[in-house]
Design goal:
Two copies of one chain form a homodimer.
Chain A: H1 26-36, H2 49-52, H3 99-103, H4 105-108, H5 118-127, H6 131-139, H7 146-157, H8 166-171, H9 180-192, E1 216-218, H10 226-230, H11 239-243, E2 251-253, H12 275-287, H13 293-304
Antiparallel strand pairs in A: 1-2
Helix pairs in contact in A: 1-6, 1-7, 9-13, 12-13
Bound molecules: heme C (4 copies), calcium ion (3 copies) and magnesium ion.
The site of one calcium ion has 6 residues of chain B, from loops.
Chain lengths: 328, 328
Amino acid sequence: LPTLGQAEWQALPEQAPVPADNPMSAAKIELGKTLYFDPRLSSTGTVSCNSCHNVMLGGDDNRDVSMGVHGKTGNRNAPTVWNSAFNASQFWDGRAADLEEQAKGPVTNPVEMAMKDLDTAIEAIRAIPGYEPMFTQAFGPDSVSEDNMARAIAAYERTLITPNSPYDRYVKGDREALTAQQLRGMEAFKQAGCVSCHSGPAFNGADLARDGGGLFMKFPLFTDNPYVERYDFMADQGRAEATGKAADEYMWKVPTLRNVALTAPYFHNGSVKTLDEAVRVMAKTQLNQELSEQQVEDIVAFLGALTGEFPEQSLPRLPGTPGFTIIQ
Amino acid sequence: LPTLGQAEWQALPEQAPVPADNPMSAAKIELGKTLYFDPRLSSTGTVSCNSCHNVMLGGDDNRDVSMGVHGKTGNRNAPTVWNSAFNASQFWDGRAADLEEQAKGPVTNPVEMAMKDLDTAIEAIRAIPGYEPMFTQAFGPDSVSEDNMARAIAAYERTLITPNSPYDRYVKGDREALTAQQLRGMEAFKQAGCVSCHSGPAFNGADLARDGGGLFMKFPLFTDNPYVERYDFMADQGRAEATGKAADEYMWKVPTLRNVALTAPYFHNGSVKTLDEAVRVMAKTQLNQELSEQQVEDIVAFLGALTGEFPEQSLPRLPGTPGFTIIQ
Ligand code: HEC
Ligand code: HEC
Ligand code: HEC
Ligand code: HEC
Ligand SMILES: [Ca+2]
Ligand SMILES: [Ca+2]
Ligand SMILES: [Ca+2]
Ligand SMILES: [Mg+2]
């Protein structure tokens, strides 16, 4: 049985870390949730944050690459928003330092929400009369701005935490919480060396991040295997695409494995359809190991024990535009 | 002041009529809500009923014509689902007899959810393990079928009622519920003759429907005015497009005016952007009248009093696909 009490087995905190310059408040969270669900922040009026990061699902869209306005697709898979507050940086390549910085990206991304610029997005928000009082409640008077939009969304995202997975209950002392197979998988996950990258309470190595920028690792680390070509893993150079630095070629943020059973397909390009294949790929590309089919199944069972409880949420009411529409 | 106690001023019932062959149950409503929000019922995995009939908004999408998978558009505006249970028939042209019949249409409509056929949609539902037990709870064992999918969605839609609008409170005796302007508008709405079509508790003439098929009226009735060309009102022949009968040319179901302030743009083609212009159009095309600007504003204020209370709802959790995705 896996040894407990070691640093590597940590339960998910019930609260996410909150930056000093963006304290949480009920009004801010409610505003953030409302913006998060509002498709009028897109050029067509059809795409909201929740379109690609569906909190009714695993916080993603279960697509290989996401689909934004006019059916346009990018080249990356949508990561989950659930527990994204525990990431040391945001995006597959960690190019945003935090949720506040991240939240300004999608609104103007041409294959996502495709607003002309952030000013246009803020104009849209201003044109919806009900938003102004919500900003006032959250940030004080005259506070409709892109920074506060991003702050509110980030505050809402910090509430998206899924505690009490079977794994968490086990780690907290409930010895019945995991099945025998899940326990074997937990041991195999450790023995194989997965924990060397997927460590800490969110299994994203955030605890090992040295510079506040997350734990970045090369992927694929071992390229001499059929997976690399089959799944086209070298097409996207990862962090180097953002930084332009040779040292960042094929460097990727270690992603969380929380709720990973719900976020198929897998990897930055969404090329791997099933979790068992993702485990095989990891063992080979990151550790140069071949797992037995039994080990793969056990690890998959263990990863299933990382599916937490999704807090019940009420549907926000999006403020209306009485007698007119802001969608062109 | 408008005379009360007359048949034409009726409050919205708190319950919608329920057909004998589809009784309501908590399990059925929950299943229906889950299906209603599930984008995996579309070919791309991105479009749910709620995409076009957003219950967080006015039950529509605030677009001129709706946008389905791959950004495709049809030629009709999305009507609200709120209070659609009070319609005597469904669609602008009433071509579906009830909500059950209606619910099977969008899933396979190529510009909406675009599933190849209903069997494909049912296969998708079967491939999501969590749905089977929900169907069993709602309909008994072995009950995953297109009819039950439609029944569940219809049951959920029958809960989408917005009571207690200022108008309802006024009709029920609260003399303070309407402003002086709204009362003038109510009187003007009656005097102008709007009530001859927009009658009954939902202002959709359902009470006048003779054959269970809703109240159908010609639109435009008077064509000798600039609006007809400006807004392209003769391009779509309405009910005749579905029935092929000359008698149905330009016949349209009288739509509800409940929450109409939230459902811009207006008319079957979504060509009129504002409610004040919609009122001007109606007066001219249906009654051959020119209203004064004061009358228009008063009627708009009255129509604003038809915005009801939106019951708080919890976000459904969509059942997951552990370790795989059903989206191609
Ligand atoms: C059309 C799809 C789409 C929309 C809309 C969208 N996203 Fe994303 N999101 C993505 C994709 C794809 C990525 C990964 C991109 C990358 O890493 O280069 C991503 C990344 C993220 C991340 C980083 C998560 C992590 O683990 O690194 C967060 C947080 C996030 N999005 C939140 C949002 C918010 C908030 C909105 C709305 C303001 C939004 N997204 C709108 C597709 C979308
Ligand atoms: C050397 C670092 C490293 C090791 C060791 C490692 N991983 Fe990973 N893992 C990563 C990185 C980086 C990614 C993201 C790769 C990408 O998509 O670009 C990842 C992605 C994943 C994913 C896909 C996550 C998603 O949301 O798509 C799974 C599942 C996973 N790892 C499981 C494992 C398992 C199981 C092991 C051990 C057999 C393991 N990892 C070992 C670094 C590592
Ligand atoms: C891509 C947009 C889109 C999607 C998705 C969509 N609808 Fe619709 N819906 C429309 C449009 C447009 C109409 C009007 C079509 C017409 O009248 O010819 C309509 C009509 C209706 C009506 C009739 C309302 C009335 O007042 O007559 C109901 C009820 C309805 N839809 C419910 C649903 C349900 C349930 C789903 C999912 C199973 C759904 N819709 C999916 C766009 C959409
Ligand atoms: C002779 C019947 C008739 C009369 C009289 C009538 N209406 Fe209508 N009304 C309709 C029909 C039919 C439609 C739907 C037309 C279409 O879009 O195809 C409609 C649509 C509307 C709409 C747009 C609803 C929407 O959701 O797009 C509004 C607003 C409206 N009517 C208000 C009024 C007002 C105000 C009056 C009086 C000034 C009035 N109506 C008189 C039959 C009538
Ligand atoms: Ca940081
Ligand atoms: Ca994924
Ligand atoms: Ca409309
Ligand atoms: Mg019937």
